[in-house]
Structure formats: C-alpha cells, structure tokens
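User:
Note these tokens:
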Amino acid sequence: MHQLKVNNGQGDCDQKAGITVKCLCPDKKDVSIFYNGLLTKSGATQVYLHTGTEDNWNNVYDHRMEPTPYGFEKTIQIESNHLNFCFKDSANNWDNNNGQNWSLSMSQ
C-alpha cells in the first residue's frame, strides 16, 4: 500500500500515480484528493473516489469526483486517522495501485 501523510496541515502526493492530497483545515478532517492518473489518461469522463477507514476498509463509500481542468477532485470529511482509497470510473475500471490501493495517515 502506498501511504500518504498529512503532517502539520500540509499534504502529500504520489506524483507517479497522479494523486495529491491537501488538508483544508487545522483539525485535518477535511481533505481534498486530486486525481489525474491512469483512468483520466485513459479517457474516463467520470471518476469515483472509493474509500474505507482503518485497516479492514470499514465504512466503504464511493464519492463522485468533480472534473477540473487538471483531472478530478473531491473534498471529504474524514472521521478516522486512517483512510484507504482507490479510484474507479463509470465503466467500473479501477485504478487501485496494482491491488495495493493508497492509504492516508493523519499525523500530528
């Protein structure tokens, strides 16, 4: 799993995969996830952020991402210190980091 961290209100990125995460508030519960990866480059017109919390993917949800000139973006509020995520398009094609997914750790 590729782990991203939000430290001291900053974000992190996986440039190779086209993913950037940015924290939007001091409590680090609102994060924006930007995606310009494999699905976008393959022509997807709609991308969903697939999320789950903790190690066993509790609270699984698909968030419809908004198209931007730079790919897709979604801002979510997270209630956990650990978020797993990957992406899928409307044809059910997945970008899941070769089955490894991504995780976000909210550190102080």
